[in-house]
Design a protein that fits this description.
The complex is a heterodimer.
Chain A: E1 4-10, E2 18-24, E3 30-32, E4 35-37, H1 43-56, E5 63-68, H2 74-90, E6 94-97, H3 104-117, E7 122-125, H4 127-135, E8 144-145, H5 152-156, H6 178-187, E9 194-197, E10 202-206, E11 209-214, H7 228-241, H8 246-264, H9 272-282
Parallel strand pairs in A: 1-5, 1-6, 6-7, 7-8, 8-9
Antiparallel strand pairs in A: 2-3, 2-5, 3-4, 9-10, 10-11
Chain B: E1 18-22, H1 26-38, E2 44-47, E3 59-63, H2 67-76, E4 83-87, E5 92-93, E6 98-103, E7 106-111, E8 114-119, E9 125-130, H3 135-143, H4 154-157, H5 161-177
Antiparallel strand pairs in B: 1-3, 1-4, 2-3, 2-5, 6-7, 7-8, 8-9
Classes of the chains: A alpha/beta, B alpha+beta.
Chain lengths: 283, 181
């Protein structure tokens, strides 16, 4: 059993850092350091799903380091500043970088510091954490990244620093091929050792090679539901923390996330809070 | 904004010498764009060339000849410019290709890494997904539950490139549903 630390921002203009062990509140929200938060898109959705899976497996619940940020980068900087101290205190086995402003030099520095403090730490990146890790040139230090079809072209293109910058590998183009892009991303140093490329078919890749595909149950509405990528990352990290190999955790996590959507009868108007309740119920 | 699929060279590099205005904050770049457009300048939001980037950067590309008047306009408007330069390669263009998914009563518009889903009948924003910058969960809170005609534009509240991509998806949804903004 391993301990997980989630490093991210939360959507508030101002606020104190939220640092502590997470649990699921009776209301269904996520509780961190005696305060309850609703399961909205972003880090709270990731932490809620990871906590749900951890509690079901009698595994350690995730620890959170979250700072207030609405895009200006102030909370991102604060989180990076606090990270070495929190890593020293918590001694995590897995560190997950999630919603944050992709500040390249800070990510590079953070990875270096984690390697100094706990060199065996498994690193995971999604959302802005993934953008920063790729742009900083440290993607290959990471064990897992979870791009969607709008992001894998960015990982595969060494010349771009953010998915918003155009690439000929864009989803919908003739050249779009997740398997090929995973290989390019790995060979160019833009990829973690394991990728989950989220889409109609989830492609799970190890060192640039597709090793599993998950397409059932098929719930097309999930792409529209903000936060279902966050829940997937949370589920997979929680499974990794139980000792499952990354590829097995990724495959099982994709199936669990889809199953929760199917059981819920998810539509494009479903909220991630409803979705997390379904994860709990479908377990 | 083009719709449907990628159909052209999107690498975005210009063969002409271009002027580039660099900013510390995405919000400053977005404010500058509005000022310069108001003064009739042809500008484009781009990523700076690799050696000029700090992180989540956004620059404004314009002709080299227009750099000087642009700086004067921005000084007058009190929009801070970190630096300016000229580059033979110009910057990297933002994705401007929208794709859509028809979910019967809902429509999802995808631009780059961002997705916006609305009801077709009322233009009610029901979900925002994708992205990774910290303003996206904030925009989700602020925009979901509002109709396209009454909601603030994402670029008015957002402060990152993901927010700007969401703004493109928002405008495309307005265009497709006939909502004037």
């Amino acid at each position: 059993m391993m301990r997980t630390l989630v490093v991210a921002t939360y959507p508030a203009i101002t606020g104190s850092p939220i640092i502590g062990l997470a649990s699921i509140a009776k209301s269904g929200g996520v509780r961190i350091a005696d305060t309850e938060y609703s399961c909205m898109q972003g880090a709270f959705a990731l932490i809620a799903s990871a906590t749900t899976v951890a509690e079901a497996n009698a595994a350690p619940r995730p620890y959170a380091l979250l700072c207030a940020d609405v895009g200006r980068g102030d909370g991102t900087i604060e989180a990076f500043q606090l990270l070495p101290e929190v890593v020293s205190q918590v001694e995590p086995d897995i560190v997950v970088f999630h919603y944050m402003k992709p500040l390249v030099s800070l990510m590079s520095d953070a990875v270096s510091k984690i390697d100094d403090i706990r060199p065996q730490t498994t690193l995971v990146a999604d959302a802005g954490g993934m953008y920063a890790a790729k742009a900083a040139g440290v993607a290959d230090r990471f064990e897992l990244m979870t791009p969607d079809v709008g992001e894998i072209g960015f990982l595969a293109d060494p010349g771009t620093q953010h998915p918003a910058y155009s690439s000929k590998f864009i989803f919908g183009g003739q050249d779009f091929d997740p398997a090929h892009l995973a290989q390019r991303a790995w060979e160019s140093g833009g990829s973690a050792r394991t990728l989950i490329i989220k889409g109609a078919v989830d492609h799970i890749c190890r060192e640039g090679r597709v090793v599993a595909r998950v397409s059932e149950p098929s719930v097309p509405a999930l792409e529209a539901v903000g936060g279902t990528g966050d829940t997937l990352t949370g589920i997979v990290c929680a499974l990794m923390a139980t000792g499952l190999p990354t590829v097995d955790a990724a495959t099982k996590g994709c199936e669990m996330n889809r199953r929760a959507g199917e059981d819920l009868g998810a539509t494009p108007a479903t909220s991630v809070a409803e979705f997390i309740v379904s994860i709990r119920a479908s377990m | 904004m083009r719709s449907s699929t990628a159909d052209g060279d999107l690498s975005g590099s210009s063969s002409q010498v271009q002027g580039l205005l660099l900013f510390d904050e995405i919000a400053e770049a977005m404010a500058a764009e509005l000022v310069l457009i108001d003064h009739g300048l042809m500008v484009a939001m781009v990523a700076p060339p690799f050696d000029l980037r700090l992180g989540c950067d956004l620059a404004i590309e314009l002709t080299a000849e227009e750099v000087s008047p642009a700086l004067a306009h921005l000084l007058e408007a009190e929009v801070r410019v970190r630096a300016w330069t000229v580059s033979a390669d110009g910057g990297f263009k933002l994705v401007d290709v929208a794709t859509t998914v028809d979910y019967r009563q809902w429509l999802m518009v995808r631009v780059g890494n961002m997705k916006l889903t609305v009801t077709k009948d009322e233009g009610l924003i029901v979900n925002i997904s994708g992205g990774g910058c910290p303003d996206i969960p904030f925009l989700n809170i602020e925009l979901v539950g509002l109709r396209l005609h009454q909601a603030p534009r994402p670029r008015e509240l957002g402060a990152t490139i993901c927010g700007l991509m969401l703004d493109s998806a928002f405008l495309e949804a307005c265009h497709l549903l006939g909502v004037k903004r």
